[in-house]
Amino acid sequence: MLGVSLTEITLTDYEFDPEEDVLGGWGHDLTGSLLGHDVTGYTARAVGSADAVVDHALRFVCEGLDHRSPEVRAAIRVRVGEPATTVAVMRTVWRALLDPEPCDAGAHPGMSSEAAKVFCTTALRDVVRQAASLCGGAGYAGADGPLGRHYRDALALLIVGAPNDVLLSRIGERELGPSAGAGPLPG
C-alpha cells in the first residue's frame, strides 16, 4: 500500500455535451465497472500478500525447527497448517472470482467481487496474525519488518476502495432484497 498514490485531476476549459459525451456510452454504468475492477484488485493484493506472509513465516520457522523438541515441532506443524489452509481457500476464492462460470454444473456458485474482497482481506488479517504468532517478536517487531508492513496493509485493505462494511451491506441487501429493513428504525 505504500506504493499507492492518489491524485486529483482538474479539467479546465473543457466543454461537456451530455447528449454526446458520455464516458462508457449510454446505458453503461462506468462507476460500477470501475468499482468492480477496484475491488477485484484489492482481492488480488490480499492473496498476494497472504502468499508472501506464509512464505516469510515458513522460512523463519524452518531456520530454527531442528533445535526444537518433538512436541514443539508437532505444535508448529499445526500452526503452519492454519495459514496454509486459509491461503489455499483464498486462492480458490480468487479463481472463482476470475472464472464466474462453473466448470461443471454446481461446481461453484460464482463469486461476487464484493464477497471475494471481504473474505480475502479479512482472511489476510488472520493469516498475518497467525504468522506473527509463529515468528514471535523477532518476526514481527521493527517498523521495517515484513510482517509489520503486511499487517498494516491488511488493515488498510479492509477499508480502502469500498470498505468491507459497505460491501457487506450491499451483499446483505441483495440477500434480503432492497425493501427489507427500509422502514424506520426502532427506538
Range of helix content: 55-70%
Name the overall outline. Answer: elongated
So, the CATH homologous superfamily?
A: Butyryl-CoA Dehydrogenase, subunit A, domain 3
Rounded mean pLDDT score: 80
Question: How many structural domains in the coordinates?
Answer: 1
Counting DSSP H or I runs of 4 or more residues, the number of helices is 5
Secondary-structure element series = HHHHH
The class by helix and strand makeup works out as: mainly alpha
Strand proportion? under 5%
Describe this structure in words.
- Helix content is 63%, strand content 0%.
- By secondary structure, the chain is mainly alpha-helical.
- It has a single domain (32-173), classed as Butyryl-CoA Dehydrogenase, subunit A, domain 3.
- α3 (113-140) runs antiparallel to α4 (146-157).
- The protein is elongated, with a radius of gyration of 21 Å.
- The mean pLDDT is 80.
Properties at a glance:
187 residues, mainly alpha, Butyryl-CoA Dehydrogenase, subunit A, domain 3, 5 helices, 0% strand, elongated
Question: Which secondary structure elements does this structure contain, and how are they paired or packed?
Answer:
Blueprint: H1 30-64, H2 70-98, H3 113-140, H4 146-157, H5 164-176
Helix pairs in contact: 1-2, 1-3, 1-4, 2-3, 3-4, 3-5
